[in-house]
Design brief:
Length: 654
């Protein structure tokens, strides 16, 4: 249906006189009611709006809309703004139609697609307004998170969240769904002490959650896969908004209902429930796994919690690097423009002023990403290098700059996260030496101080983890490659280990990068490998041999140590996608998939792991240039064994 526009006029924004202190607001008009029984006709009526400029310090009450723009190549629809036509995406068109449904009064809305001048018409104004978005969302009377039209059982999912969330509130259990109080709830649920009021209240809610979940498993998985959860910009909109609501079709729920319900669902997946699911078919059991592994909400609620938890005198929660890591590592987080992968976190980052960064759409995308990486490394935190992963999808990036694309791999090293500052540093290859960074050399160059370990002589095949454990050849091949490299190292007979015993330990330490995945939660979940890992390694090899002999298909008793073998397999998982290597002197380790013979293993001062560099000639008087290839574990150097035994060098990364 055509929009109500005058003489085919196209809408054009009037520039803001004071873009630092003014915003535009959209007044969305209700539909003109037709005769009874014409609901579909009402819904499809043209969207008519007006727009006005208001001071941000004293705006009228308004609703801020968070939504996914959708594919930039999708069809568009016209709406009428003050009698002139403006083309918007189908996703925003759908959101506005649902928001005006059943309304009799105009709705005052802020939405970026309309209220910020898009395109290249006025880049300076756009830069300022984008930089203000966190404040715009925080000042709204309410933030509506539009997940899209109803479909794929979404009404049932919204009802589940509404019913379980309300039950949690009615029992006053929401106070236990916090970081500080959750251990109390977890302990009560696992103890199941008769007469314990907390357990009895939780059990009632758990029973309700399980009852409602069982027929809605597929719908829950589909709900988790909605496009809104896969966008970058929506994170800040979700974190700073007051009383946000999830809106899907014509249903809405408080976002905290989703947080508390997901927590109780996790606590409530008992063996009895899993048996009930399995009775409906193995495909249903797989959906339970998908609900856990594919849950998109923790990153959103985690970032929101950081924002709310910051206190004076504490390390600020939500630094730019922590936000980038939370949103882009292991998650589908997409942005229409490459620069928005980082710009979308700027308003949330508590250290942005210290980093000296600001939104600037005039800069090329490679320049934006380079400036971000340079600012982070200049501060002395070399962790950002862990997320330089090939192949990158942005042209002309320096080798040391992450592209922050979706689904970056986690590092094999458990870098600290905010709130866990008490965790130990597992490795200190440079001892107590602080980082030496020269970041302002101009161009695409950065210089890091450190020392060389050795040149890579040979590499093995890239190893990919098999979560099921059924593909024994993958594990056997990986362990065999490392065993072969360890024997080559012994044949070189170089004094790179303190003792023969330590040299022999490399065979079971290297495959898991000397980090053991303990079967527990909390700070002790990962530990430096001990002789328990050595015994688990032997159990794991016995398990593989038993499986290869057909043990799974027989009634024969499995070899002892199955639990420990499984823990060794779990410890292997973090090394997926990496490649074993040996150096000229016989150092054995595991490094990035792109490494090859002739690369150099180095230690940067202040780093927690080794790095692999590729020599690229010289650069004037400054010395040799290198390409950054990736991070690595190198056995025998991770505890500072080479500190003071190697010449200090300046590595110029290009």
């Amino acid at each position: 249906m055509a929009s109500s526009t005058q003489n085919g006029a196209r809408f054009s924004h009037t520039p803001l006189e004071r873009p630092h202190s003014q915003i535009r607001l959209l007044e969305l008009q209700p539909v003109t009611r037709q005769a009874p029984g014409t609901i579909g006709v009402d819904f499809d009526q043209p969207i008519c709006c007006s727009i006005r400029t208001v001071p941000l310090d004293h705006p009228p009450p308004y609703t801020a809309l968070s939504y996914s723009w959708g594919d930039k190549d999708q069809p568009r629809r016209n709406i009428s703004i003050d009698g002139a036509a403006l083309s918007i995406t189908m996703s925003l068109d759908s959101a506005l139609r649902h928001l005006r449904h059943d309304r009799t009064e105009p709705l005052i809305v802020w939405t970026d697609q309309i209220c910020i001048m898009q395109g290249n018409t006025n880049i300076p104004e756009k830069n300022v307004q984008v930089d203000m978005m966190a404040r715009i969302y925080s000042l709204a009377k309410q933030v509506l998170v539009w997940l899209g039209p109803a479909g794929q059982g979404s009404d049932g999912v919204m009802d589940l969240y509404a019913d379980v969330g309300a039950a949690i509130d009615a029992a006053n259990l929401q106070h236990y769904c916090t970081r500080d109080n959750l251990p109390l709830l977890d302990a009560a649920v696992h103890a199941r002490e008769p007469g314990d009021q907390l357990w009895e209240q939780a059990a009632v809610v758990q029973a309700l959650a399980r009852e409602l979940l069982l027929p809605r498993l597929q719908a829950m998985v589909d709900w988790d896969r909605r496009e809104w959860f896969r966008r970058v910009w929506v994170v800040q909109e979700f974190c700073v908004g007051a009383d946000p609501l999830f809106v899907c079709g014509h249903k809405s729920i408080p976002v905290d209902y989703v947080k508390t319900t997901r927590l109780f669902l996790g606590l409530g997946l008992t063996h009895e429930f899993l048996r009930a699911v399995s009775a409906q078919g193995e495909d249903k059991l797989a959906l339970v796994g998908a609900l856990g592994s594919g849950d998109p909400t923790p990153a959103f609620f985690g970032a929101r919690s950081w924002r709310q938890r910051s206190k004076p005198g504490q390390r600020p929660a939500g630094t730019l690097f922590e936000l980038l890591r939370m949103i882009h590592v292991g998650r589908e987080a997409h942005a229409t423009e490459v620069v928005d992968r980082v710009f979308g976190m700027f308003s949330l980052a508590t250290d942005l002023d210290d980093l000296g960064l600001s939104v600037d759409y005039n800069k090329p995308e490679a320049k934006v990403l380079t400036d971000v990486a340079r600012a982070l490394i200049r501060g002395g935190d070399l962790t950002v290098l862990a997320y330089v992963q090939l192949p990158r999808d942005v042209d002309a990036l320096p080798s040391w700059v992450p592209d922050w694309r979706p689904n970056l791999r986690s590092s094999f090293y458990p870098y600290r996260v905010v709130g866990n500052e008490g965790e130990e540093d597992y490795f200190r290859p440079s001892g107590s030496r602080p980082p030496i960074v020269t970041a302002d050399l101009g161009g695409d160059v950065i210089c890091l101080g450190g020392f060389s370990v050795d040149m890579v002589e040979d590499t093995g095949s890239i190893w990919t983890h098999d979560p099921s454990g059924a593909d024994t050849f993958r594990h056997q091949s990986y362990l065999a490659q490392i065993r072969f490299l360890c024997r080559l190292s012994a044949m070189k007979n170089q004094p790179i280990y303190a003792s023969m015993q330590r040299r022999e330990e490399a065979e079971w330490r290297v495959p898991i990068a000397d980090i053991w995945e303990a079967n527990e939660s909390g700070p002790g979940a990962r530990q430096r490998a001990t002789h328990r890992a050595m015994r688990a390694f032997a159990d794991f090899r016995n398990q593989i041999a038993w499986m290869e002999s057909g043990g799974l298909g027989r009634t024969a008793v499995a070899p002892p140590g199955q639990s420990e073998a499984s823990m060794y397999r779990l410890s292997l998982a973090k090394m997926s996608g990496m490649r074993p290597f040996i150096t000229s002197r016989g150092y054995v380790g595991v490094g990035p998939p792109a490494m090859c013979s002739g690369d150099v293993v180095v230690v940067f001062f202040g780093a927690r792991v080794c790095s692999v560099l590729r020599p690229r000639g010289t650069w004037g008087f400054m010395g040799k240039q290198y390409l950054y290839v990736g991070e690595a574990y190198c056995d025998g150097v991770m505890d500072g064994e080479l500190v003071g035994q190697r010449w200090e060098e300046s590595f110029y990364l290009v």
